[in-house]
Amino acid sequence: MRRILHIDMDAFFAAVEQKRHPDLIGKPVVIGGSGDPTQRGVVSTASYEARKFGIHSAMPLRTAYKLCPQAVFLPVDYEEYSRVSAEVKNILREFSPIMEDVGIDEAFLDISDIPEASEEISRKIKDRIKSELDITCSIGIAGNKLLAKIASDLRKPDGLTIINEGDVEKIIWPLAVRKLWGVGPKTETYLRSININTIGELAAIPLEKLINHFGPSYGNYLYEASRGIDESPLVTHWEPKSSSRETTFQRDTNDWQTIARTLAGLTKEVSEDLKHSGYIGKTVTIKIRFDDFKTYTRAKTMDEFTDSNETIRKTAFESLGRIKLEKKVRLIGARVSGLKKK
DNA sequence: TCTGGGGTCCTCTTTCTC
DNA sequence: TCTGGAGAAAGAGGACCC
Length: 342
Prior knowledge:
Helices cover about 40% and strands about 25% of the residues. It is α+β, with helices and mostly antiparallel strands. The mean pLDDT is about 95.
């Protein structure tokens, strides 16, 4: 029987900010965008105090400001959060070398081969992160990643939750389908429309029906996930597949100079990111979102792998020429994919 | 003045190659 | 030379995650 932990940092960005600015402790803190709630941008993280006002991640900053004008709004400081994140991950790796990074504030840890009890290990992890970094996390313990992740979400912040093999019916099935990893707003809306609201109700649907509706890949996934089945291993090493930059204009624009200058800047950043990480790529994709939120992409695969700013820029502008700019542009982006190590 | 940015993966369609 | 088909690769869009 595998034993998997899911470690989820509590309101991570806000916690890091409160740690380096202790005067913010106990106050509603909202991290997002440039930190200016009158500008375009969304909430990355809200402290638990801010959540009491209804503020949550992905909410527009302007909406958050309306809900709680007295909140402290701060810009996202990825460098600092990455630094603290690396310290957390180092602590985790001391407990088990089998660790999967899930973004900046989450990780899975496989502790199957460690003799100590799961709960004991989890408490030690929480203690060390608290004493060394002064931040809290929530941990879920289960026999696979899927259930460990659901578990860590059940009690927050500073929680510790165990889901045992026999607990699926009792603990998982009453939960909303949205709690399943991989079920987002679209699938939730669809499932609701056919009267499926809980994971248990999803588990009652025959496999053939799920495959008919969602295709073999996702259909099979939903069938197994709703039963708490997940054999997927921890991914301890991974290579990037693409590198991209995009930006939303503060005001929608149809000024060609602005659009062109911005795209040139973005391709330069992507090229620099590639050089910095030591990758070269083959396909350049540009992305444009118009003021009506309609989004288009155009891609071109080059003859050779490259990290050259000039080549990437030229290829990007070729693709830009294939999109009619008849509406105002809200967002523009550039991506290089098909990466390999230089 | 609703709706970020950086990713992955999947599906469907089109294009290329044999 | 024409036609058709199969399979791979590329392109486009969309859902999802943090």
